[in-house]
Amino acid sequence: AQFFGMFAFIAWRGWQPAEEAIAGLASHVAVSEGRGSRKKSRFRLLVPIANPQTIRRLVRLASAIAKEKQGEILLLRVLTVPEQLPPTQFDEAKLEEERAVLREARKACEEFGVPSHGVVRVGHKVARAILETSTDWNCDLIILGWKGHSRSRERILGNITDAIVKFADTDIMLVKFVGNAPINHILLPTAGGEHAQWAEQYCATIARAVDGSVTVCRVVPEDESRTDSEIHKERLKPAVERIFEEGGFTIKSKVIRNDSIADGIIEAAEGYDAIMVGATRQSIYPQILFGNIPEKIAMGANKTVIMVKHHDPVKALLGKVVGE
């Protein structure tokens, strides 16, 4: 009986939508317009727009993935109202401002040749509204812009981003943009873990879409012998082969000599447009997010940094149960 009780609890917890992890009222859909479909079979990227100045860069990146996967982009703006007001009560003038932002984003999607749909949700909590949208539209990937710092030491990525990374039932791509240049040449550090392999897939997709290049790398200590360096280069071959299989183009590989993994990658990134890195930790504990090294790279690099975290339903379910 105890076993079945535990099984029932795990099943119940797993069926709960991601947004239920955040207390409060459900948000209200005030605007929904565009060419989007709700077919589960279609690859769908959710792009919440927090800063209108990043629209073109976010859409350019999302479009590269959507094109290759024959998918669509779901654009989201969240209009927050005070806790004492219901989400159905809002300022129409502010809603019109949100519509204007969505129109600009949808126009950018048209320029890149990708179907899009725009949604404005009104609610008390931005993170909950984003998770609700992801659930309602069966999204496969959420792309989030990130400033690269947080005021709170406890919240490494910022309050809203932390909640989405912890609770979303999708892959997450967190992007810190530096400059406006297109992302054509990508440096991809990899140690072959689960998240790193998903970063490889997304990296191949982006590079193929823009006819770009990928360089796979690994960092070794400065006193490493030449023979050991060759061994590490051999260990990069599986990643090179996986990316070639996914992208169909030539991939370079390099071994970086530095006693600090993060510093070595940051220095080596000088000749590239972006660094893409997978989360270094997969844990059933939800407070562990991307890992120290990716976050150090993201905060220290003067380059666009893309961090990837893959959603594993089983591990995510265990995380929910352990977090109770």
Write structural notes for this entry.
With 324 residues, the chain is α/β, with parallel strands linked by helices. It has 2 domains: 1-177, Rossmann fold, CATH 3.40.50.620; 178-307, HUPs (Rossmann fold, 3-Layer(aba) Sandwich). It is 41% helix and 22% strand. It has 11 helices and 11 strands. Strands 1-4-3-2-5-6-11-10-7-8-9 form an 11-stranded mixed beta sheet, sandwiched between helices. The model is unreliable at 9-13, 151-156 and 283-288 (pLDDT under 50).
Features:
alpha/beta; Rossmann fold; 324 residues; eleven-stranded mixed β-sheet; elongated; 41% helix
Fraction of helical residues: 40-55%
Tally of contiguous helical segments:
11
CATH class of the largest domain: Alpha Beta
Report the end-to-end length measured between terminal Cα atoms. Answer: 21 Å
Unreliable runs: 9-13, 151-156, 283-288
What fraction of residues sit in β-strands?
15-25%
Cα-atom radius of gyration: 20 Å
The CATH superfamily of the largest domain bears the name HUPs
The CATH topology label of the largest domain is Rossmann fold
Mean pLDDT: 84
The CATH architecture of the largest domain comes to 3-Layer(aba) Sandwich
Q: How many domain regions?
A: 2
Could you say which structural class the secondary elements and strand pairing correspond to? Answer: alpha/beta
Task: Describe the global form.
Answer: elongated
Give the beta-strand count.
11
Summarize the structure.
This protein is of the alpha/beta class. The protein has eleven helices and eleven strands.
